[in-house]
Design a protein that fits this description.
GO terms for molecular function: RNA binding. By secondary structure, the protein is an alpha+beta fold. It has 3 domains: about 90 residues, Alpha-Beta Plaits (2-Layer Sandwich), CATH 3.30.70; about 160 residues, TATA-Binding Protein (2-Layer Sandwich); about 160 residues, TATA-Binding Protein (2-Layer Sandwich), CATH 3.30.310.210. It contains 17 helices and 20 strands. The strands form 5 sheets. Strands 10-11-9-12-14-13 form a 6-stranded antiparallel beta sheet. Strands 16-17-15-18-20-19 form a 6-stranded antiparallel beta sheet. A 4-stranded antiparallel beta sheet has the order 4-5-3-8, with helices on one face. Strand 4 and strand 5 form a beta hairpin.
Amino acid sequence: AGKVELHGKLIEVEHSVPKRQRSRKLQIRNIPPHLQWEVLDSLLAQYGTVENCEQVNTDTETAVVNVTYGNKDQARQAIEKLNGFQLENYSLKVAYIPDEMAAQQPPQQHPQGRRGFGQRGPPRQGSPSATTRQKPQSDVPLRMLVPTQFVGAIIGKEGATIRNITKQTQSKIDIHRKENAGAAEKPITIHSTPEGCSTACKIIMEIMQKEAQDTKFTEEIPLKILAHNNFVGRLIGKEGRNLKKIEQDTDTKITISPLQDLTLYNPERTITVKGSIETCAKAEEEIMKKIRESYENDIAAMNLQAHLIPGLNLNALGLFPPSSSGIPPPAVSVASAAAAASYPPFGQQPESETVHLFIPALAVGAIIGKQGQHIKQLSRFAGASIKIAPAEGPDAKLRMVIITGPPEAQFKAQGRIYGKLKEENFFGPKEEVKLEAHIKVPSYAAGRVIGKGGKTVNELQNLTSAEVVVPRDQTPDENDQVVVKITGHFYACQLAQRKIQEILAQVRRQQQQQKTLQSGQPQPRRK
């Protein structure tokens, strides 16, 4: 693994990106918002020929660009020198964009904007976040639910009204009339820039209000937004803080459909906003901003992690909303990115891991299920062994679930346990499920997880937003292992586990190499 010293920081460059996955393309994140393009261009040009540099739409204040260098070597130099580089008090983050992902989807098939990091629009002017540039479409469409009796008015005579809206807001709008026949409400999907989505939403609300007046319909027509359950926890925020703030700032009343309504086929929750058209429109902006942010974070995390879980197919796990307009789900094709991962070596099974996950003692019954049905199904679904350890004492608040299996099995089993605890209301409707997981590491490797002066552990926490603790003064167990404690919501916890396993794999590889070297020299060297 190549290590680079940057501003006193040791940064590992090579080991986490398998050779075959290196490419000429890099994504640079966390660029200062007001940086002039000239400054960025001259910085990038130091490492080689920049064939292409395009801005990616994000909801963060900082800018993100995708850069293509003339060859892989130049890209490698750039990533070594620029990752962690300080620019106007911002620390740049640089990662490879694997070739498969870049080549996978020609962008024109995707009205939804960035999918395989496709080519990006118009020429740049001014600074990365200058408003003169036409904003690219958001990856996350706005999904609304409207009463069936207003669908005709929204479409208009021979489709004139809907054509007008799409033209005016430069959007693509799908009205899913065929869906849930006979239902009182129909979903509408709007693909556009965040601003375009908001304008279209406001026009649709105005059309419904006018139609209601014309047809003497007197009930209130709230704004209903559909959002994938994965993002709703973060929208609600801890103890409901984020949602309360949106309600206060926009003077609206917001409710969210209960988890019980979710099914495998319908992972969306309904967010109902009551207020005037003006206030509902403001609330829509805030709600979608939060949801897009969560989506961007998850995609970014997964792009970074793609090569860490060999063969993991995210779409199969249903982590991302299937888009309903026939566009394939995000091409974070982890399966292909992972297929390029150079470990475990071909033909070897990924190693089995054991994780101890702590759940509320009261939840044990829900996890086991009637006559052990739930835990058996879970074990089959995940391909993992799942056992619940006996209680430590009569008053124990937590119980330990012992999960044994390869990375993908861990991902599935832990994900379902998190989900089950949420569904069974062991966590409030407005809080994220946070659990503690323990993994055992050889005592000689604990130092590597902590890093010099705690540096690695701090970087782990910053990258994954999980809390990672290696308690000091532990007495190693009979297998000479010590415990690493990880606490966080499912996503954070998974990333931290993968990162730690990656460090351990590296330690094991180095030991193997040393052994091989030693065994190759049976005679002690004479002085």
